[in-house]
Design brief:
The longest helix is centred in the first third of the chain and has 17 residues. β6 and β7 form a beta hairpin. The protein has three helices and 14 strands. The chain is an alpha+beta fold. The protein has two domains: about 55 residues, no CATH class; about 150 residues, Glucose Permease (Domain IIA) (Distorted Sandwich). α1 runs antiparallel to α2. The N terminus is likely disordered.
Length: about 240
């Protein structure tokens, strides 16, 4: 896949296809949010222009929230050998061994991170490697904190091979409100730990499927930050 992977509800946003995510942010906001931010402030300006002050104030509050939602802060990436960083901000809702999954063969560890609307929604590469497979799955929009969201919801999966030859999966999952999955990678592309690679708009979930011998460093209920929190160590 050589383009932005977007949900069917986002087909009209073709301008996203040309966006690139720099290693260091050029702006305080994620670029996929520019269209939302611009639209929100345009509506606000029009409301004040026609003299609808109360609605204008309410619209300004909404526009401010949209700016805050699409914030894209830089992060300090750990340099620990073998450290696998969190792909998302949020709360760990699953941290367990599973026998099978749809992305990598055999038993592995699943770590799932739920993002609410107040979290930063820019996603980062968990560990350096090459994209072996990128696959989009259409689906439903259940609450992303539910276990069935991993299998039933709309999602986009990457399978990445590390330099040591190990495979792991990272899956962006749309939620009850989230209807925009953005992921700019292509098969065969080299990815670097901690770099930005996509986002999910307005609440969602990230699932990691890690080799069975990974030393997991998080537990259910723990809060993590994309790019800076260590979720485990690859051996």
């Amino acid at each position: 896949m050589t383009r932005w992977l977007l949900s069917d509800n986002c087909k009209g946003m073709k301008n996203l296809n040309d966006l690139k995510w720099p290693a260091k942010a050029d702006f305080p906001f994620a670029r996929p949010g520019f269209v939302y931010i611009g639209a929100a402030w345009l509506v606000t300006g029009l409301l004040f222009l026609v003299g609808w002050t109360v609605l204008g104030v309410l619209s300004a509050c909404v526009a401010t929230f949209v700016c805050w939602f699409f914030r894209d802060p830089d992060r300090v990436i750990p340099r620990d050998e073998g450290a696998l960083v969190s792909p998302a901000d949020g709360r760990v809702v699953v941290a367990e061994r599973v026998e099978t999954n749809d992305y990598v063969e055999g038993p592995c560890y699943q770590v799932s991170i739920f993002m609410n609307v107040f979290n930063v929604h820019v996603n980062r590469v968990p560990f350096t490697g090459v994209v072996e497979r990128a696959q989009y799955f259409p689906g439903k929009f259940f609450n992303a904190s539910l276990d069935k969201a991993s299998k039933d919801n709309e999602r986009n999966a990457l399978v990445i091979r590390t330099e040591a030859g190990k495979l792991y999966g990272v899956v962006q999952i749309a939620g009850l409100i989230a209807r925009r999955i953005v992921c700019k990678v292509k098969e065969g592309e080299d990815l670097t730990r901690g770099n930005r690679y996509g986002m999910i708009c307005f609440g969602s979930r990230l699932d990691l499927y890690l080799p069975e011998d990974t030393a997991i460093a998080v537990k259910v209920g723990e809060k993590v930050s994309a790019g800076s929190s260590i979720v485990g160590y690859l051996k």
